[in-house]
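dumping this here before i forget
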Amino acid sequence: MRILSGLFEGKTTGTPISLMIENVDQRSKDYSEVALAYRPGHADYAYDAKYGFRDYRGGGRSSARETAARVAAGAVARLVIPEVRIRAYLVELGGDPIDRDAFDDGEIDRNPFFCPDAAAAGRWEAIVDGARKAGSSVGAIVECVAEGVPAGWGAPLYAKLDSELAAALMSINAVKGVEIGDGFAAARLTGETNADPMRPGNDGKPIFLANHAGGIAGGIATGQPVVIRAALKPTSSILTPVETIGRDGQAADIRTKGRHDPCVGIRAAPVVEAMMALVLADQKLLHRAQIG
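structure:
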């Protein structure tokens, strides 16, 4: 990665920061069959339907490589919110969840799965290897927690913190679902069990006894950890033949050759962290503009 402009002697100059990441590790020939037929589950057909044209040599903006720019931008955004600690990790892969009782923050950086459960990481290695050998793929769920987000960030309507986060995570390639706090599990609770009870704290701020809402109420941060999860679908580019149609509209089968991740979710933790940082940095600046 090269910084082209916007920085001088370690400081921003006030002009846009321009970065360049060269895509030098690619094999366009791996996509020869994609030129003639659409990959089911991928954006091939949707792009053709919208533009009447597509560059089949990888996927362009629908490729997960696009997220490298987000991670770079997120690194800059983190400098705006030094008071916030952001941590993302995988909590499920291929339908196999972690053991929450075995959660070890230090373990996240000790395995290639960004997994806080050492035993689960061992199981996941076998799951991913099995999917790769079978020419298939599996999905995953990434959880992200932001600690230190001050109460008051966000807005009650058009710039809700939760809606901004949901939109940001849904913009990540392969993400098909987003949960905040208890998410869909909240629909199975009662009012009293879903509530986040409060007691008075010594500093005049409340002490929360639960965090079902994920640190956000009415679109505004409560001061609790902000918790969000993203579900990523299995990689669409697989070696297993799948029924599809060609660009000529005729029935066909397709298998995508070359190097493709059997689980794109493994690479998603840094991307989710970056998107969380970008949204929170924006919310901090917006809060300053609104409140002063």
